Amino acid sequence: MAISGLVISFNEERHIGDCIDSLFRVCDEVIVVDSFSKDDTVKIATSKGAKVISQEFLGDGKQRIHGLQFCKNDWILNLDADERLDEDTYQFIMSEAYLDLPHDAYNLRMRNFLGDEEVNYSGWYPDYTCRFFNKQTATPSTSKVHQRIQANNIKDTKLHLYHYGWDSFFQIISKKNQYTDWQAEELVARGKKAKWFDPFTHGFAAWFRCYFFKKGVLNGVDGFTFALIQAFFSYMKYAKLLKLQKKKDRS
């Protein structure tokens, strides 16, 4: 069964080549939807045999949806530029076992890395994400950040992806700061209302869950740090929502 690889990118020259190589292990085409990168992302992608579509960034979900029209196959393997197939996922796809199963989408487990260190605690593993789906019955949501695949019959698996998302805490904080801006804007657009105590309750709940229930407490300072990162940005999402509410009420 033929599979289309789909990637969205912006200034991903460090990652895009390895991502495309990973996709071509199982895909007969790779489509890259690039948001007018300023570096060599497009040059590298083209040299690797990918077809590049230029498109201003529409948001995480809408950008992926835009790319689907250029994919000739029904089954889509939609990686981010900093993701790679783990061997178990490769073997599953190559076996074509999914063709005999009733599922139209598969949740994979992310193996997240900070530099060379795998972070498998404080809620960072198993970090399920759907990257393999049939576009006839499943599609990305229109969310601007952290889109979800909407499918008829999605399956949680024990298959894995490598995710080389960050080299430093600075990068984590920078990315999550942008994400919470978008999340707060989406909550406002959906008519969500926050109360003054929501940042505190959501932040504390996130920290407690990650530190105690997600094994952070077993990983010393690192466990506390990653739980604190999760908590802080849960807090900030609702703090930013409150600010947007006040601005909207004054206008």
UniProtKB/TrEMBL annotation:
Gene3D superfamilies assigned to the protein according to its UniProt record, in alphabetical order: Spore Coat Polysaccharide Biosynthesis Protein SpsA, Chain A
Coiled-coil positions: none
The enzyme's E.C. designation: 2.4.-.-
InterPro entries membership: Glyco_trans_2-like, Nucleotide-diphossugar_trans
Matching Pfam families: Glycos_transf_2
Top-level lineage group: Bacteria
Domain Glycosyltransferase 2-like: 6-94
Keyword Disulfide bond: no
UniProt keyword list: Glycosyltransferase, Transferase
One function term, GO molecular function aspect: glycosyltransferase activity
Listed PANTHER family: GLYCOSYLTRANSFERASE (PTHR43630:SF2), POLY-BETA-1,6-N-ACETYL-D-GLUCOSAMINE SYNTHASE (PTHR43630)
Family from the record: Belongs to the glycosyltransferase 2 family. WaaE/KdtX subfamily.
Protein name in UniProt: Glycosyltransferase family 2 protein
Organism: Sungkyunkwania multivorans
